[in-house]
Amino acid sequence: MLIDLHTHSTASDGTQPPAEVIERAATTGLDVVALTDHDSASGWQEAAAGAHQFGIGFVPGIEISTKHGGTGVHLLAYLLDPSYPPLRAELDKILAGRGGRLTSMLAQLRAIGVEITEADVIAQAGRSPAIGRPHVADVMVAKGLVANRSEAFATYLDPGRPGYAVRYAAHTAEMIRLVSEAGGVSVIAHPWGRGSRRVIDLAALSSFTSAGLVGLEVDHQDHTPGDRVELRRLAAEAGLLVTGASDYHGDGKVAHELGCNVTAPDQFEQLIEAAACAGRLSGRDVSAGVSW
């Protein structure tokens, strides 16, 4: 069984609609796929319908922006109820922060002579409620300012570059608790990719486990073979599951093709069991209506 638990669609910063992501997953040979758009569940219904059409298992998820020790940590939340009021309030706050950040980013870019408007970015983002740096990067590509998203980030949008601006993100441990209360389970995405490497250690993982964390996304393109060995050791010490995934974004991210990393079936089964337990305890069992 081939299981990919981290993908993105046009409901955030991917380049394909949710149904097309599911169709691509099915034709790639995956048996189960999760849609985990940033800070939003808006693609779930379309993805679930696509999964039924193409005969593939579907897991609803969200990649939530959080912070620990002043550093961004992305949390993959699965099988949660996104309508749970305290969670909904935090997600709305995170999404509002994206809008405020966009204004700051574009002003900073204009200051160095890069002319991009909010209308340009909104048109590029389409129906996505989670407007982010990748959409700004895509406008830069369309205008011929850079060759691809990677160049846009390295030149303008990464931390320390002229177009970077901070935005609101929830505290990691508090968001893990909210996900549990909403009937879901949490896995830290690419824990040693990007800046989160600085703050994800055994002490942090132990505190997150106490808050309800169930897993680490170990097999990810941002992790070297050595990283993966060490992260497996940390996961074992912290009593966490190990997952793997592509972090697929369609044409928006190279070398992240569907199924390039996968989750072992036994780890997936334990993840589903943990979600079912969280659902029973919270009275918000999203897993009951999902098939795989």
Walk me through the structure.
- Strands 1, 2, 3, 4, 5, 6, 7 and 8 form an eight-stranded mixed beta sheet that branches.
- The chain is an alpha/beta fold.
- 44% of the residues lie in helices and 16% in strands.
- The model has no long low-confidence stretch (mean pLDDT 95).
- The chain is globular.
Low-confidence segments? none
Return the string of H and E elements: EHEHEEHHHHEHEHEHEH
Overall outline: globular
- How many H/I helical runs? 10
Biggest beta sheet summary: 8 strands, mixed
Q: Give the helix/strand class.
A: alpha/beta
Overall mean pLDDT stands at 95
Estimated helix fraction: 40-55%
Brief write-up:
The chain is α/β, with parallel strands linked by helices and 292 residues long.
Protein traits:
292 residues; alpha/beta; 10 helices; 44% helix
List the helices and strands and how they pair.
Layout: E1 3-4, H1 18-28, E2 32-38, H2 44-54, E3 57-68, E4 71-78, H3 85-111, H4 118-125, H5 133-142, H6 149-157, E5 170-171, H7 172-181, E6 185-188, H8 202-211, E7 213-219, H9 225-238, E8 241-244, H10 265-282
Parallel strand pairs: 1-2, 2-3, 3-5, 6-7, 7-8
Antiparallel strand pairs: 3-4, 4-6
Helix pairs in contact: 1-2, 4-5, 5-6, 8-9
